[in-house]
Write a structure and sequence with these properties.
heterodimer; A: about 575 residues; alpha/beta; ABC transporter transmembrane region fold; Rossmann fold; 2 domains; 12 strands; disordered C terminus; B: about 650 residues; 4-stranded antiparallel beta sheet; 16 strands
């Protein structure tokens, strides 16, 4: 994990090294200064030597200036390194996500990916800055102060040594326990936020069922739980500062007592004693700092792990070397295809699928919920790879194609479709970024989208809000179809893409397809028989298998499932009008 | 249609709009303080005492260092005595203070955990409870991500502020005050010098804080923009793939990422420079005091009474003085950030909750001697309990499910009506179907019946009672709704069905599931009714989720049903069976159905054809077909015979 993350340092390696270097210099300055302070008191003040005070004072100022430079350098480089590192991490993740196949995307939830790209990276950024600026500083301070103390008086300095060791043990014990508790509580905390999220998006359900109180109680319980866990975790951590203070105090007292003896015995000067007391503070403060870094790192390590997961994830669908760039035509062939979303699931979603579709045909696909209609069409543009068998487009196995070329020429309107914030034109140009406005309008006419776009205040320049929130479901679907049409694909797949469009418009769209893009192979998944009955042929899916393949008439005669669906939608006493809706 | 809201990436919507400035930080601060104080007055008082004790113990320690040399060591050196007795006494005395200080610090820390976590708990609770009480309009007009960020970001920043910044700020002030006094006692001249240096320090840190503050705001804005973009792209990741749009997506990402990195760098660099600047200024102050103090102490004027020992301890104070000042300036930034969060929290808390002036209640009813009276148990019958203030009497009226719209106008915004002059009458047990193209206002009408929105003009009556007079919770309880977008909650399948009736038995849950035809798929789930659903039922198909939503409505057993395209994503085979169950459910209940599939509404008692917010046709299937107008066109896909 650490290796994966550090690889992303890239151009920020140098500043990453410079930061601790600066911090080290700052520490050095900080260490010399108390020594000089002691000298001023000792030789200058008690020695009543004004010139000495000035000389050493000036020296101190010079060193302070030096320390300032080093400190500012540390702040500058540290900030540069950590924010740059965060930037690279985000980029590495985002770039890699763009290479993800559908099954990779399925593996991570959307909100999971968002958290990794945002909160987790921020955690790492903070931890890294802390690490660069403090992690070097704290041990350096401890060691430097230790050395200085030992120079002054090995005997007294050994008091620190004992204190540091004892404190270290206490800290490790406390922190080990606390990190476990904190990890638990943060997990629960995430869950809490998820439930809030759920409430916000399902507020209509909550209100419709008058469940506000119920939700409040649920939340109250969860919050109370979090409270208890937080208290338990923090009760551990708060033992630290008092034990630190106590140690400092004991050290001060011990040094004062033994120091006094030594001064009287002539082994130590009063200035040295003052210096020792100062070092005592810096040593123990730095110990505290180390403890904090320790906590931060353990917390950040969870984030780091999650980031590394995304960076290390390998797309399981890639174009092969020398892949074919051109789909010759819209023929589609499935040869004994079986498919499962997860390699280890026993029951495949699709079983022994075999069929052949010719270029330019319009094929309807109908079947119950979970009958794997979407899974079937997703294999055509290689959104997923088959487990066994072959899917061929234009007579060539889809795995032989360059992914981009294949997907450009096999255009899919997904069931869960999304528009992006931007104007309608910008959204349409996802299909073809060089499309002229006329081309866009033409596509919209085919998709029956122009009628409502024209009515919008800004027409084709109307801003679409994030997720397409300001257009209705049916409008969204029609825009998505238009967007897919702009690719001028050889194969067009509509995965239940007109479910929110009324029957009349639906029929109009299909009519436009038949007249405007006759050469394109069209696959239409639908719930309504009316949407598919005029197709050249219709596939009837059930439980991952093809249970019928033929024209509307043939299927009505020979296929029980189809007939049942048909009758359920039209009723036994179907109106004469309904039988010929065009 | 404004009512169809997706989960939106919040901060992204703020794109381009400058981050709001806190208008009144002082007021905000005190409001927050009042908050903390009302919940934990005694804790806070004890904490303050503890801080004072700790500070006092610290001062005693510093004084001890002074006297250590002056009063104990120096005299011994001067007299050559080896009597450590007095020193032992002094050390024991200081040790006592130290002990007190440590205990006080520990007590303070313990109490602060309760104060901090308790305040946050109550704040979370209050924010959530208040949020639940807000009208639907609030959720329409506020990006969900923004609402979420109150919980995830703002309350979190408060945690840091309450637990760290505030106590530190207070103890820093105490330290500053006590050290200042101690210094002044030792030498007022040097105190002035020290204070002058403090002014310089404050000036410098003010500059750095300002520079970093500006960049922090910038950073938050860039972060918001980036987060919004990431959220949008992650949601649409599959579409990005299908359209080979990866490169373009990355390009825009790089821009936003770069901008964030830039402002974050500046913000952190400036705030990071605060520490070194102050530390070195502190050292400078020390040197200057040593020089001036040395000059005074070494001058022969005994009248000043400034001994070398006093100078030594003054310098010790001086050194300790810069630390709390440094801390104050460091905490300042985090407090400003926390206040910005508090601002958003209070804004949410200040939102007007959904008003409810309704006084007509829905009660269980039974007949006694030909009269309707209130029952204390579930009877399967309901009555409206109507209290008349004028006569101080209570009347009961059976709940039947008669709904009338009378000249109803409605708009999500006052200046833009989406429904015009809606007139309709549904008698008890009738099935009313709304048809019309998308955006015609079908969903909107149903949202008015349960008062998700209030109408601008006209009247809606329910059993001849103006719905504004019915208590909202009772009104909604009497209406079963299956919404266009299915939302499920984290919990088991059974929990989700039980949402419609919290005290439903297992048998009732199964019965409802069977009615909705959900039973067969639930049985096949790994753990049946105990299968955990997470992430809005992400592990179920769209159709299965809807079946659960129907079962949820079924178990509530409401007198009036609103079905909003409930069956549009269920395959037709399943739908036929669902429809059977629905028919059973609808029997005897007034039902409003919105569906695109006209076959499902054909059996309705009354079909209402909507177009651009107006009712254009109304009647039975046969009547409307015979008219050969709009319904005929919708139904058959043919042009109407006459325009």
């Amino acid at each position: 994990m650490v290796k994966t993350l550090l690889k992303e340092l890239k151009e920020y390696k140098l500043v990453s090294v410079l930061t601790p270097l600066c911090m080290f210099l700052e520490v050095a300055a900080e260490m010399i200064i108390p020594k000089l302070m002691g000298k001023i008191v000792d030789n200058g003040i008690y020695g009543e030597n004004m010139a000495y005070i000035f000389r050493v004072g000036l020296m101190m100022l010079v060193i302070a200036l030096f320390g300032l430079g080093a400190g500012l350098g540390g702040a500058y480089y540290g900030s540069k390194a950590s924010t740059g590192f965060a930037k690279n991490l985000r980029k590495a993740m985002f770039d890699n996500i763009q290479t993800f196949s559908f099954s990779n995307i399925d593996k991570f939830s959307t909100s999971g990916l968002v958290t990794r790209l945002t909160t987790d990276v921020t955690n790492i950024q903070n931890a890294y800055m802390m690490l660069l600026r403090m992690a070097m500083r704290a041990p350096a301070t401890v060691i430097a102060a230790m050395i200085m103390s030992f120079i002054i008086s090995p005997k007294l300095a050994s008091i620190y040594l004992i204190a540091v060791i004892i404190l270290g043990i206490i800290m490790v014990l406390v922190m080990r326990k606390a990190t476990v508790y904190f990890r638990e509580v943060f997990e629960k905390y995430d869950e809490l936020n998820e439930s809030v999220q759920e409430n916000v998006s399902a507020i209509r359900v909550v209100k419709a069922y008058v469940r506000e109180e119920h939700e409040n109680n649920k939340f109250r319980k969860a919050v109370g739980n979090i409270y208890n866990m937080f208290v338990r975790a923090e009760m551990n951590v708060i033992k630290m500062p008092p034990s630190l203070t106590a140690t400092v105090y004991i050290c001060i007292l011990a040094i004062s007592w033994f120091g006094a003896h030594m001064i009287v015995g002539g082994e130590l000067s009063t200035g040295d004693l003052m210096g020792l007391l100062t070092y005592c503070m810096s040593i123990l403060m730095s110990m505290m700092m180390l403890a904090m870094i320790f906590v931060m790192l353990t917390m950040a390590s969870a984030s780091g792990k999650r980031i590394a997961e995304v960076i290390e994830e390998k797309s399981d669908i890639t174009s092969k070397e020398g892949a074919i760039k051109e789909v010759p035509n819209g023929d589609i062939v499935f040869e004994n295809v079986s498919f499962a979303y997860s390699k280890d699931s026993e029951e495949p979603v699709l079983k022994n699928i075999d069929f052949e579709i010719h270029s330019g045909e319009t094929i309807g696909i109908i079947g119950g919920t979970g009958s794997a209609k979407s899974s079937l069409v997703n294999l055509i543009s290689r959104l997923y790879d088959v487990n066994t068998g072959k899917v061929k487009v234009g007579g060539i196995d889809v795995r032989e194609y360059d992914l981009e070329a294949l997907r450009d020429q096999v255009s899919v309107v997904l069931q869960k479709n999304v528009l992006f914030s931007g104007t309608i034109l910008e959204n349409l140009r996802w299909g073809d970024k060089n499309a002229t406005e006329e081309e866009c309008i033409r596509a919209c006419k085919m998709a029956c989208a122009d009628e409502f776009i024209e009515k919008m205040p800004d027409g084709y320049s109307t801003m679409i809000e994030q997720g397409g929130a300001n257009v209705s479901g049916g409008q969204r679907q029609r825009l998505c179809i238009a967007r897919a049409l702009l690719k001028k694909p050889k194969v067009l797949i509509l995965d239940d893409s007109t479910s929110a469009v009324d029957t009349a418009t639906d029929a109009k769209i299909r009519h436009a397809f038949a007249t405007e893009i006759p050469g394109t192979t069209k696959l239409i998944i639908a719930q309504r028989i009316a949407s598919v009955q005029d197709c050249d042929r219709i596939i009837v899916m059930d439980d991952g298998q093809i249970k019928g393949f033929g024209t509307h008439k043939e299927l009505l005669e020979s296929n029980d499932i189809y007939r049942e669906v048909y009758e359920s939608q039209t009723g036994a006493s179907a109106d004469a009008d309904f039988d010929k809706p065009m | 249609m404004a009512e169809v809201k997706e989960i939106k990436g919040g901060p992204g919507n703020r794109r381009g709009i400058p981050a709001p400035k806190i208008e009144n930080p002082g007021e905000l601060f005190w409001r927050l303080m009042r908050y903390v104080f009302t919940y934990y007055p005694y804790h806070i008082i004890i904490v303050i005492v503890c801080i004072l004790v700790t500070a006092y113990a610290g001062i005693q320690g510093t004084f001890f260092t002074k006297s250590l040399i002056d009063s104990y060591i120096q005299p011994m050196l001067d007299t050559g005595s080896k009597d450590f007795g007095p020193l032992l006494v002094a050390i024991s005395r200081v040790a006592g203070f130290y002990l007190l200080g440590v205990i006080a610090a520990y007590v303070q820390a313990r109490l602060m955990v309760y104060v901090n976590q308790g305040t946050l708990m109550r704040l979370r609770e209050e924010v959530f409870t208040h949020m639940e009480s807000l009208p639907i309009k609030y959720f329409d007009t506020h990006a969900h991500g923004d609402i979420m960020s109150v919980y995830t970001n703002d309350i979190d920043t408060l945690r840091q502020m309450i637990s760290q910044s505030l106590p530190q700020l207070f103890s820093s002030f105490v330290s500053i005050a006590t050290i200042l006094v101690s210094m002044a006692i030792l030498s007022w001249q040097l105190t002035i010098v020290t204070l002058l240096m403090v002014v310089v320090m404050l000036f410098c840190s003010g500059m750095a804080t300002k520079a970093s503050g500006k960049n922090f705001v910038e950073q938050q804005r860039n972060l918001g923009a980036l987060n919004g973009y990431i959220e949008e792209m992650m949601t649409g990741q599959k579409v990005v793939k299908v359209f080979n749009h990866e490169t373009e997506t990355i390009e825009r990402f790089d821009e936003l990422n770069e901008a964030l990195c830039n402002s974050a760098f500046k913000a952190n660099a400036f705030s990071g420079s605060l520490g070194p600047i102050n530390a070195q200024l502190g050292n400078t102050s020390y040197v200057i005091c040593a020089m001036i103090g040395g000059a005074i102490a070494l001058s022969d004027s005994v009248a000043v009474g400034f001994t070398v020992g006093a100078l030594a301890s003054f310098l010790a104070f001086n050194k300790n003085f810069s630390m709390p000042i440094n801390q104050v300036s460091m905490q300042f930034n985090s407090i400003i950030m926390a206040l910005a969060g508090a601002d958003r929290i209070f804004k949410l808390l200040d939102e007007e909750p959904e008003t409810d002036d309704g006084y007509v209640l829905l009660v269980d009813a039974q007949e006694q001697n030909g009269e309707i009276v209130e029952a204390d148990h579930h009877t399967g019958h309901w009555a409206w309990k109507h209290y008349h203030k004028a006569t101080d009497t209570t009347t009961y009226q059976p709940m039947e499910g008669d709904v009338t719209f009378n000249g109803v106008d409605f708009g999500y915004r006052d200046d833009k009506m989406v429904l015009h002059d809606i007139v309709l009458h549904a008698t008890p047990g009738q099935k009313i179907a709304f048809v019309g193209s998308t955006g015609a206002g079908k969903t909107t009408i149903t949202n008015l019946i349960n008062r998700f929105y209030d109408i601008q003009d006209g009247k809606i009556r329910y059993d001849n009672i103006n719905i504004n007079k019915i208590r909202k919770s009772d009104l909604r309880r009497s209406l079963g709704i299956v919404l266009q977008d299915t939302h499920l909650f984290t919990g088991t399948v059974a929990d989700n069905i039980r949402y419609g009736k919290l005290d439903a038995t297992d048998d009732e849950v199964v019965a409802a599931a069977k009615l909705a035809n959900a039973h067969s798929f639930i049985k096949r789930l790994p753990e049946g009714y105990n299968t955990m659903l997470t992430g809005d039922g992400a592990n179920l198909s769209q159709g299965q989720r809807q079946l659960l939503a129907i079962a949820r409505a079924a178990i509530a057993d409401p007198p009036v049903l609103i079905l909003d395209e409930a069956t549009s994503s269920i395959d037709t085979r399943t739908e036929k069976i669902v429809q059977d169950g629905m028919d059973r459910l609808m029997k005897g209940r007034t039902t409003f159905v919105i569906a695109h599939r006209l076959s499902t509404v054909r059996n309705s008692d009354c079909i209402i054809v909507l177009e651009q917010g107006r009712i254009v046709e109304q009647g039975t299937h046969e009547e409307l077909l015979a008219k050969k107008q709009r319904y005929y066109q919708l139904y058959t896909g043919m042009k109407p015979e006459t325009a």
